[in-house]
Write a structure and sequence with these properties.
This protein folds into 3 domains: about 5-165, no CATH class; about 180-360, hpI Integrase, Chain A, CATH 1.10.443; about 410-549, no CATH class. Helix content is about 50%, strand content about 10%. The chain has helices spanning about 30-45, 80-95, 100-115, 125-130, 135-140, 140-150, 155-165, 180-195, 200-205, 205-215, 220-225, 270-285, 295-300, 315-330, 360-370, 375-385, 395, 400-420, 430-440, 485-510, 520-549, and strands at about 5-10, 20-25, 55-60, 65-70, 235, 240-245, 265, 340, 355, 450, 455, 475-480. A hairpin with a 6-residue loop joins β1 and β2. α2 packs antiparallel against α3, α18 (about 400-420) packs across α21 (about 520-549) and α20 runs antiparallel to α21 (about 520-549). This is Integrase.
Length: about 550
């Protein structure tokens, strides 16, 4: 039974050839002195605050300078505490896992040890039945328990590992994104807030405006946003740029040198203006190098953030608190929306509901948007700071739900535009509606050219025919022949074509096809957009039919 798997990448020479080696680490791989050295190295680099192996509370510090406390609660079982500490050291100092991963792993391990009385053999008999009642989320963490058991020297490790190894693990859900409807609503709020809000409250939430306007276009990681420097926004030869430094590092993992990221990115004048205004005001306040300087941000707040850290930039915790305050004070109190958690399924939100967006969501939104616009996959990787095109796979898994939500919002817009013109003439009973209809058509319905499922109001037929199916033409007027059954059949055809296009786009990412000008990819994404418009039109007609019933 193996321990913690460690993969190392070794550069063999000038030709940049990489050799991959795998090592399995168990409790006895290192001596006690070597574990102490790992701890001291972590303390020296600032990842762990000064402690000893005997201390039962450690504080680890992430790249945001945010602290997480690790408690080792089994004081009466010092050998168990020592085992967990050594596991944490391997994860932090050898495998280089993030602090959030360590905190989560420690909790799962501690909970499991409590439940099983430290892997007591008498408890293993009923373990499978107990696991059956675990949530899917907890079942997905079984690999953590397996890894810890393999690492340990506990007598019952084989029996427990065998039971855990026989559990069926639920598929991991792709990261939940808010619906496109919520994205559009939030964007509307931001744009209106920029134009119409009071200057004082606008300055308080200016970091939120920067986050949204910048990262919905350029897929930055949160830390890359927090550590943007003021001098990195500049004008050159009449064009506007932002300089980026990628922050995802893998401690010498040579794979992360394969694709060079784009660090100088051209931005619009509007975005430059938004950033430079805040930078100018920040420069008046202090000489910090960071755009999102903590002290400057805090000067506009009327609430206590309880910040105890000595840091120059805004950390993740501070930014999330500001975003939550924005939802309460602006989205809810000023614009009247009810903020709800992200939904696991696509549902129709009420007119005054909006799903919450988290700081990291805009990175996914930006990448999905670029995929659907037909950006070259290498360009997306460079803009996103991905080392490999295959890193886009996770994001491409959002495309199906993203496109459905996108067409739903578009369909609502289409429905409002075509609702009056496309009503059956027999359903119009009010003279005011009839007058408006005649003004729009310039003719009586019965005098128009007959087409499949309705009439054509084009005055220059057939020279205005741009599509092969009249249903998708701006000159089409719905007739009684356009039934729900017909619409459902057309929707099936369009959905099948959309699935084909999405499958191709995802395959480009997953198979890492040759970089360069992928014209076939561009053709497929352009075609996909046309299909999304068609799907939205069909949905709009379906909405109209349902309302008239």
């Amino acid at each position: 039974m193996q321990g913690i798997k460690i993969k190392q990448y070794i550069n063999t020479g000038d030709n940049n050839e990489v050799i991959v080696t795998n090592t399995d680490i168990t409790l006895n791989t290192y001596t006690d002195e070597e574990y102490k050295k790992i701890l001291n190295d972590l303390i020296s680099e600032g990842t762990v605050q000064p402690v000893t192996m005997e201390d039962n509370e450690w504080v680890i510090v992430d790249e945001f300078l945010e602290q997480s406390r690790l408690n080792f609660p089994f004081i009466l079982q010092p050998n168990i505490n020592e085992l967990i500490k050594k596991y944490v050291l391997i994860k932090l100092g050898v495998q280089y896992r993030s602090s959030s991963t360590i905190v989560h792993s420690r909790k799962e391990i501690v909970d499991f040890l409590k439940e099983t009385n430290f892997l007591n053999l008498n408890r293993v008999v009923n373990l499978r039945d107990e696991i059956a009642h675990w949530s899917d989320t907890r079942k997905r963490s079984i690999h953590i328990l397996q890894e810890f058991i393999r690492f340990s020297n506990l007598d019952s490790k084989r029996e427990y590992y065998t039971v855990l190894n026989g559990v069926s693990i639920p598929d991991s859900n792709t990261r939940t994104l808010p619906s496109y409807q919520s994205i559009i609503t939030f964007d509307y709020i931001i744009q209106d807030f920029i134009v119409n809000s009071d200057d004082k409250i606008k300055m308080r939430y200016y970091p939120i405006l920067i986050w949204w306007e910048l990262t919905k276009i350029i897929p930055l990681r949160p830390i890359e946003l927090y550590l943007l420097e003021r001098e990195w926004v500049y004008e050159q030869n009449g064009k506007y740029y932002i300089h980026l430094v990628r922050r995802k590092k893998k401690h010498g993992d040579l794979r992360y040198t394969r694709i060079a990221p784009l660090n100088e990115i051209e931005i619009s004048y509007e975005l430059y203006n938004l950033l430079s205004y805040y930078i100018k005001e920040a420069n008046k306040f202090n000489n910090s190098k960071y755009i999102l300087n903590y002290e400057f941000m805090n000067s506009f707040r009327d609430f206590n953030t309880n910040n105890k850290r000595n840091q120059d930039f805004c950390g993740g915790g501070s930014f999330r608190k500001l975003l939550l305050k924005f939802y309460k004070e602006v989205v809810t109190e000023q614009y009247g929306y009810t903020v709800i958690p992200k939904q696991d399924e696509d549902i129709e939100l009420k007119f005054n509901e909006i799903e919450v967006l988290n700081v990291g969501d805009t990175r996914h939104i930006a990448i999905c948007s670029m995929m659907l616009q037909g950006f070259n996959e290498l360009t997306i990787a460079q803009l996103a700071g991905h080392a490999r095109v295959s890193e886009q796979v996770t994001y491409s898994n959002h495309l199906e739900s993203y496109t459905k939500a996108y067409t739903y919002v578009m369909a609502k817009s289409f429905k409002n535009r075509i609702n009056l013109v496309n009503k059956d003439v027999n359903s119009i009973r009010h003279s005011r509606e009839m007058i408006m209809r005649k003004a729009l058509l310039g003719n009586d319905y019965d005098g128009l050219r007959k087409t499949d499922y309705g009439r054509c109001k084009s005055k220059n037929f057939p020279f205005e025919c741009d599509v092969e199916d009249c249903l998708f033409c701006d000159h089409f007027i719905r007739g009684s022949e356009l039934t729900q059954k017909v619409l459902d059949e057309k929707l099936k055809i369009v959905d099948k074509e959309i699935a084909t296009k999405l499958s191709y786009i995802k395959s480009v990412v997953q198979t890492e096809r040759k970089y360069g000008d992928n014209r076939e990819l561009k053709t497929n994404t352009n075609s996909l957009h046309s299909l999304l418009v068609r799907r939205a039109i069909i949905e709009a007609y379906k909405m109209g039919s349902e309302e008239s019933q």
